[in-house]
Design brief:
single chain; 329 residues; alpha/beta; Rossmann fold; six-stranded mixed β-sheet; two-stranded antiparallel sheet; 10% strand; binds zinc ion
């Protein structure tokens, strides 16, 4: 945040609080917030992320990115937000962490006037914590966590008849894209479209923050005084490929402002051009009916192996009950 204080807001001339190098622009808090909102609005329009009247489930973890996403979507949907938007928080039972996240998300839901659905791992599969599930699966906590979260988010959006919105930022997207490139995973690279279309057993997915950096989501959350949790998950691995990639790209961005966004836009336009004929026939899980790579989805396989019963159908039932009690269905 170099010498922002010495500069003046581009809009109102007041003392600036943020300087964005790639835009060569300084802003006061109020006009920074408006600037980011304008950007996300335009990104959503450019990629036709939400259709008129379409409903959206927003996965909110309680961290800066997803909290910023929920707050932005509530503003963008305006008076329609209470009807069209549902926040989803998954309590994974991480001691000393999940409770703080949940509190932040509950406060946010109250402040935004948007419905919140809280589901705990205990309710979904009868295991108290993700750590416990991973231990019994003999797998890394983050990997099990990823499988469970992806499954539950999609299940909620499918049952809710809604689009799923996630808080992936520009930095997240590029870190995954570089990783896909390293592994030469052409199928995944071709899927980097800002709105993934619906498929049997899969809700459409959107990433409204795909053109907003992590630094910007942090500043946005701080400047609006949004409730969020700063600390990272205790199970999160240090020195991941994604983190190293983010650091590298930020150094390139520092030397050549604007690199990150043009990188993203090239990948997205290429994916949009080739994506339609990639990916083969979508399949569904023979047990739970949701999208799957094989006959049985990874969530049903995991829970079958660890708990002796594939939990997909149970998760879908619990989710339907919750949605009904929220008056959503
Ligand atoms: Zn201003
Ligand atoms: Zn399944």
């Amino acid at each position: 945040m170099r010498s922002a204080a010495a500069r003046r807001c581009r809009v109102c001339g007041a003392e600036a609080q943020v300087y964005l190098r790639y835009a060569r622009a300084a802003f006061c808090a109020k006009h920074f917030v408006e600037y980011i909102e304008g950007r996300v609005r335009r990104t959503m329009e450019r990629y036709a992320m939400l259709r008129p009247g379409e409903r959206v489930v927003v996965a909110v973890s309680g961290g800066k990115d997803s909290v910023t996403l929920a707050a932005l979507l509530a503003r963008i949907l305006g008076g329609e937000a209470p009807e069209r938007m549902l926040m989803l928080y998954m309590d994974l039972g991480i001691k000393g962490y999940s409770d703080k996240l949940r509190e932040a998300v509950e406060r946010l839901s109250g402040e935004l006037g948007v419905k919140l659905m809280v589901v705990s791992l205990e309710e979904l599969v009868g295991v108290a914590s993700i750590y416990e599930l991973a231990r019994r699966a003999r797998r890394a906590t983050c990997s099990v966590c990823g499988t469970v979260k992806r499954y539950v988010m999609n299940a909620v959006a499918v049952e809710a008849g809604a689009v799923l919105a996630t808080g992936h930022t520009l930095d997240d997207a590029l870190a995954y894209i570089v990783k896909d490139f390293m592994y030469q995973d052409q199928e995944r690279l071709s899927k980097w479209v800002p709105r993934t279309p619906a498929a049997p057993g899969a809700a459409p997915r959107i990433r409204p923050l795909i053109e907003v950096s992590e630094r910007e989501t942090l500043l946005y959350a701080l400047m609006r005084g949004l409730p969020f949790v700063h600390e990272e998950c205790p199970h999160r691995p240090r020195d991941s490929v994604e983190d190293a990639t983010k650091d590298y790209l930020n150094r390139v961005e520092e030397a050549h402002p604007g690199t990150k966004i043009s990188f993203l836009r090239r990948v997205v336009s290429r994916a949009a051009a080739t994506g339609a004929d990639e990916g083969g026939t979508p399949r569904t899980c023979t047990i739970c009916g949701l999208v799957s790579r094989g006959d049985v989805c990874s969530f049903c396989r995991l829970t079958q192996r660890v708990l002796g019963e594939p939990m997909g159908p149970r998760v879908r039932r619990v989710v339907r009950e919750k949605l009904a009690s929220l008056g959503w269905l």
